[in-house]
Amino acid sequence: MAQDAVAAFLAMLAAERGAAANTLSAYRRDLTGAGEVIGDLLRADKADLARLASAWADLAPASLARKSSALRQFYGFCVDEGLRDDDPSPALPRPKARRPLPRVLSHAEIAGLFALAETEAVATPEGARMLALLELLYGSGLRATELVSLPLLAVPRDAPFITITGKGGQQRMVPVGGRAQAALSQWLRARGGGGRFVFPSPRGGHLSRVRLFQLLRDLALRAGLDPEKVSPHVLRHAFATHLLEGGADLRVLQTLLGHADIATTQIYTHVDSARLVALVNARHPLGNVGSR
């Protein structure tokens, strides 16, 4: 029965991928909703799945992409488990356009933020905190929630890594460069004792995501940048994009960002095509064959 297959699929997501409860609920809703349109999901063929295009015609691209992704993963699971002999998911509707990435800050804009943050870090404890936050957002690509909720125990004193607990409770080791280590050490000295978080809140607990957003906007304004362009997520995008521009491997970037699916990381391959052509010409064995 389709219900049993859906239950097994969701159990796999929870056990093998550490999917969060909200993610599992969303997948269940998407699969149930598709079944209400086309009937038994286990017996559906490509023509049945193609009918979803009209049923989902008014959905936003992001919603359409999520629903189609849930079904593609479900049918891939069914084939792997021997519940079906074929995979009809190529007939699923696809969004017309991917949601654009937030604008990535240029190297010059990043340099401007850091120049001011480094100057202010010498003057006040708040400045030291801002520099540490900035280093971990851009230097390590942490999500806002991962950063503000970072516990002291996750930051070893003598190792260039921190332990991050990301989406779905999945843990990963994130390298911390020398600059970020120095900024963290400076902040921890200014921070003093008390509390279990690296970035505590004066009211108890840890710094909020909203406050982090405000601090970044204020820094951008003081640095002469448009504050509307700067956010924790934009800095994470800049981290990923600038690493790819430098020749980083996509699989390595997937690990650093904590993405469960490589398809999520592939959105960062929007780096300019000229650089990619140059990379192929420089690194591929046949890249310079014409010049020999």
Detailed description of the structure:
The chain has a two-stranded antiparallel ribbon. The model has no long low-confidence stretch (mean pLDDT 84). Strand 1 and strand 2 (171-175) form a beta hairpin. It is mainly alpha-helical and 292 residues long. The chain has helices at 2-16, 21-38, 46-50, 52-55, 61-80, 107-123, 125-140, 144-148, 178-191, 209-222, 232-245, 250-257, 262-265, 273-283, and strands at 161-165, 171-175. It is elongated, with a radius of gyration of 23 Å. Helix 6 runs antiparallel to helix 7 (125-140) and helix 7 (125-140) packs across helix 11. The protein contains 14 helices and 2 strands, in the order H-H-H-H-H-H-H-H-E-E-H-H-H-H-H-H.
Overall SS class: mainly alpha
Major sheet: 2 strands, antiparallel
Shape: elongated
| Radius of gyration over all CA atoms, rounded | 23 Å
Termini Cα gap: 63 Å
Assembly level? single chain
Helix and strand pattern: HHHHHHHHEEHHHHHH
Rounded average pLDDT? 84
Q: Helical region count?
A: 14
- Spatial strand sequence of the major β-sheet: 1-2
Which percent range describes the beta-strand content?
Answer: under 5%
Tally of DSSP β-strands: 2
Helical residue percent?
55-70%
Sequence stretches where pLDDT stays below 50 over 5 or more residues: none
